[in-house]
Design brief:
heterodimer; A: alpha/beta; ten-stranded mixed sheet; globular; B: Rossmann fold; four-stranded antiparallel sheet; 40% helix; AAA+_ATPase (chain B); Fe-S cluster assembly ATPase SufC (chain B); ABC_transporter-like_ATP-bd (chain B); ATP hydrolysis activity (chain B)
């Protein structure tokens, strides 16, 4: 395996490589204690649905449900008309049955949300209980999302949460406290109503309405999502997070997130997602846009744990996501970290447009595909400004009959002189029925830039497993330990609490992959 | 304590018989040494006892305190108190040595229904043991065996052994690749564990390790069998005359 040595990329700040103690053990306990997909239950709650299928009327209906101004409705309709002319992309290494876009609900909201709750106290207790059960209490307390036992280590830290349930945001915590710092954190539907000037100025400027088939669909029908604005020279006083939950059947979730980091600001943003076990596949097509002005820094971390389908590949979420950060300002810096363990189909390439001179983009990814899962994921680093730097560390793990593809673009434009990219792309295979693929695209159009690409493929080594087992670990503990070691660099790029959750997920996702 | 009876083993993948009826009993508190020329089956014996794949037991048994080892998974053997110090310890990139150790210790405790050791308590225990073996804090943080020198790897094996507190320790050519100073450290580590209750099976090519770890019984293995058993003087005989005389004598 290729982790013996630290990465040699002196131009970029090296991530901390010291091994974090006390985390692997959690993984190991979790494996012993848990069933395979922990979040597969559903909430029995009365829902309002828009009629099945997609049409201009549905687009108008979603817009009116959100009390949107006319310009927003028009924007959606433009996207919808464009979408009708687009074809679903088929270039990814993904095999799935044709999606019937008319056989889906595009809007589903709990009846109790018809009257918008004024505060968290007014939210339907069933919804609050749902998030409580997911480990994300929608209370303003010092606890983070999705991590049990997190009290021990997060004491003194706060994380604000925006909770999205099917098509609507049910509540956002710590809004008042954030407002004191000038930070706006709310659902995007609220932002459209309350902060139209910001939304109008930035929405669709990173991922245009007609960017690609799925982003265009999202532009037409997105129902909710999160909005963040960090004012100039402000370090966001706490981490922000959004937790997406799909609950309703036959319903797609189309959320849209817009993050604006003004000059000299900083924010760390976390995203988590889960869904119940259903026999029928469900569509998820999200868009995330991040705008970074001069000297701004954004860290965006995702732990994606959508229902992956069963062992035969029945059900699961089809996850088609467009995430892009635009480093518009000089010296701005964005870091994407993703742990992709769920979904039957993953089509996702969080990207960085390095427009500002001296801007930096980083992408750290763990993609795990087990059983019949298929993942085609990677990043695009588009170097447009001078002295721009990017770094890609991708760890793909395949088990069962899964197919896992890394697809990445590194592009150095003529004006992006003296720019650097370093890419490290490692694949780990468990068993003999799975596949790993690496598809790098590299374009360099100037003479002063440098691109480095390293790739390895390895199998979980029997000697390593035997060594662990001879010390008393059972086979699954041993695999979890070895795989967590393989992923170490990426796990360490995550915020601590997320890293623990991610380690547990790594273990759970690989359950049954050995023996 | 460890009782091996008429053990016959062949390779799983091919028709090659390696052990041809090994009989051996290690009593509690005793140190037994196995010596023998290359290819005599010494390392295979240690692998078969600890449950490595690739071998097929065709006949015989091996029990630890009366429990049949050969029916157990490797981790069950470990929990039952068997430990193998590897001749070639395996590297596990990205996994901290300390994490590995604590995971192992707690896995065994859990298997035996004992409470786990807390992080703080564990750290204290490891530091004390590490000091005896001249293992510094840096080495505990580094990924398991990655970039370790030969001596560091062997000392790390003994550290694991000390932390896991096995009933029965097998050392497979622990002296190979060690200089005199490293060998003394390793031997001191092993001797510190000699408490009159543990059994040891020390597999080695050379007498020199046995200068530091004094055996109670020495066995000579050749062609898949124990061909001669004696006291410490047998090791000295090998040192002086090589195996040829002994082998000629038994044939």
């Amino acid at each position: 395996m290729a982790l013996d040595t630290d990465i040699d990329a002196p131009e970029l700040e090296a991530p901390q490589l010291e091994v974090r103690e006390g985390v692997d053990r959690e993984t190991v306990e979790t494996v012993a204690n848990m069933g395979s997909y922990k979040y597969g239950w559903d909430t029995d709650i009365e829902m309002d649905y828009a009629p099945k299928g997609l049409s201009e009327d549905i687009v108008r209906l979603i817009s009116s449900k959100n009390d949107e101004p006319e310009w927003m409705t028009e924007w959606r309709l433009q996207a919808y008309r464009r979408w009708l002319q687009l074809e679903e992309p088929r270039w990814a290494m993904l095999n799935y049955p044709e999606i019937d876009y008319q056989d889906q609900f595009y809007y589903a909201t709990p009846k109790s949300m018809a009257e918008r709750p004024k505060s968290l106290e007014d939210v339907d207790p069933k919804l609050l209980a749902t998030y409580e059960k997911l480990g994300i209490p929608l209370k303003e307390q010092m606890l983070l999302a999705g991590v049990e036992g997190a009290e021990e280590i997060t004491s003194g830290r706060k994380v604000a949460v925006d909770a999205v349930f099917d098509s609507v945001s049910v509540g956002t915590t710590f809004k008042a406290e954030l407002a004191k710092a000038g930070v706006i954190f709310c659902s995007i539907s609220e932002a459209i109503r309350e902060h139209p000037e910001l939304v109008k100025k930035y929405l669709g400027t990173v991922v245009p309405q007609s960017d690609n088939f799925f982003a265009t669909l999202n532009s037409a029908v997105f129902s909710d999502g999160s909005f963040v604005y960090i004012p100039p020279n402000t370090k966001c006083p706490m981490e922000l997070s959004t937790y997406f939950r799909i609950n309703a059947e036959n319903t797609g979730q189309f959320e849209r997130t817009l993050i604006i980091a003004d000059k000299g600001s900083y924010v760390s943003y976390l995203e988590g997602c889960t869904a119940p076990k259903r026999d029928i596949a469900q569509l998820h097509a999200a868009v995330v846009e991040i705008v970074l002005l001069d000297d701004a820094e954004v860290k965006y971390s995702t732990v994606q744990n959508w229902y992956p389908g069963d062992e035969e590949g029945k059900g699961g979420i089809y996850n088609f996501v467009t995430k892009r950060a635009d480093c518009r300002g000089a010296r701005s810096k964005v870091m994407w970290t993703q742990v992709e363990t769920g979904s039957a189909i993953t089509w996702k390439y969080p990207s960085c447009l390095l427009r500002g001179d001296d801007s930096q983009g980083e992408f750290y990814s763990i993609a795990i595909a087990n059983n019949m899962q298929q993942a085609d994921t990677g990043t695009k680093m588009v170097h447009l400004g001078k002295n721009t730097k990017s770094r890609i560390v991708s760890k793909g793990i395949s088990a069962g009959k899964a197919q896992n593809t890394y697809r990445g673009l590194v592009s150095m434009h003529p004006k992006a002189t003296n720019s650097r990219n370093y890419t490290q792309c490692d694949s780990l295979l468990i068993g003999s029925g799975c596949g790993a693929h690496t598809v790098p695209y590299i374009e360099v159009k100037n003479n002063s830039s440098r691109v480095e690409h390293e790739a390895t493929t390895s199998k979980v080594d029997d000697d390593q497993l035997f060594y662990c087992r001879s010390r008393g670990m059972d086979e699954e503990e041993a695999v979890a330990l070895v795989v967590n070691g393989f992923c170490r660099e990426v796990l360490q790029a995550l915020p601590m609490e997320f890293a623990m959750e991610a380690q547990q997920l790594v273990a759970i996702s690989l359950e049954g992959s050995v023996g | 304590m460890l009782e091996i009876k008429n053990l016959h083993v062949k390779l799983e993948e091919e028709d090659k018989v390696i052990l041809k009826g090994v009989d051996l009993t290690v009593e509690a508190g005793k140190v037994h040494a196995i010596m023998g020329p290359n290819g005599s089956g010494k390392s295979t014996l240690s692998y078969v006892l600890s449950g490595r794949g690739g071998y097929e037991v065709t006949e015989g048994s091996a029990t630890l305190d009366g429990a049949e080892l050969l029916d157990m998974e490797p981790e069950e053997r470990a929990a039952a108190g068997l430990f193998l110090a590897f001749q070639y310890p395996v590297e596990i990139p990205g996994v901290g040595n300390m994490t590995f150790l604590r995971t192992a210790v707690n896995a065994q405790r859990k298997a035996r229904g004992e409470p786990e050791v807390s992080a703080a308590e564990f750290l204290k225990l490891v530091r004390a043991q590490a000091k005896l073996l001249n293992i510094d804090a840096e080495m505990l943080k580094r990924p398991v065996n990655v970039g370790f020198s030969g001596g560091e790897k062997k000392r790390n094996e003994i550290l694991q052994m000390a932390m896991l507190e096995p009933r029965m320790c097998i050392l497979d050519e622990t002296d190979s690749g060690l200089d005199v100073d490293a060998m003394r450290l390793v031997a001191d580590g092993v001797n510190a564990l000699r408490d009159g209750k543990r059994g040891f099976l020390v597999i080695t090519h050379y007498q020199r390790l046995l200068d530091h770890i004094k055996p109670d019984v020495v066995h000579i293995m050749a062609d898949g069998r124990i061909v001669k058993t004696g006291g410490p003087e047998l090791a000295l005989e090998v040192e002086e005359n090589g195996y040829t005389d002994i082998l000629a004598e038994v044939q």
